[in-house]
Give the backbone structure.
Amino acid sequence: MQKPESIVVLTGAGISAESGIETFRSEDGLWANHPVEEVATPEGFARNPQLVYQFYNQRREQLLSKEINPNAAHSALAKFEHDFDGSFLLVTQNIDNLHERAGSQNVLHMHGELLKMRCLNSRMVFDIRESFDFDSHCQCCRSPGNLRPHVVWFGEMPFHMNQINIALEACDVFVAIGTSGNVYPASGFYQIAKLRKAHTVEFNLEQTGSTFDTHIYGKATETVPQYFKSLLD
Ligand code: APR
């Protein structure tokens, strides 16, 4: 395969698994222990906001603990972005900041970010590293009851879709790392890239049933550094 000129990478929870953050759909994953409709839908938030604040406060606290650090797969992507002379776009479904902590400069968080919150009134977005809840005051309205996690819930529109679709249609290599391909629109990205001539590569522990051109099985910390190093050689 000749040297690629334009690469789009999509990551999912599997790239952060070896950093100690549980994925969503494994046996003891996040959705096994927290009903999605209660903690990851607008209806769940309207029904019981405290439960939702608590769910994200717990995940934020875990993310900021010293045990959770970027792994070799995150670092390999950051190094590639720095060394590659073509166009490179990293899109993540993850709401953790491990790509940024590994040195990735230009990360599109299509499902939002755990370390950001949004005011329902002003729609302003603020960085947040502590817990917050219904009684927290936003800096814009200076009143309680307006803040929610800046995270995309089921039934809501992911962020950056326009920019992502443009990149998908222009890329010659599309790579998906550590995603089960269960959630649309991310699960359909490789098909858009494929329609436009791109070579598609899937990194996972196991088969996902997606029809990528190439499947590379194994742990992301082993398979991802090897592959991206070979692209630079
Ligand atoms: N290396 C490579 N792949 C891995 C590893 C690993 N070390 N560990 C797990 N995986 C794979 C699993 O085999 C699985 O296919 O990562 C995938 C994780 O799948 P999910 O738990 O479904 O996570 P994801 O695909 O990111 O979910 C997408 O769904 O619930 C929503 O908004 C949430 O962003 C999330 C979206």
Observations:
- Residues 49-63 form the longest helix (15 residues).
- The mean pLDDT is 96.
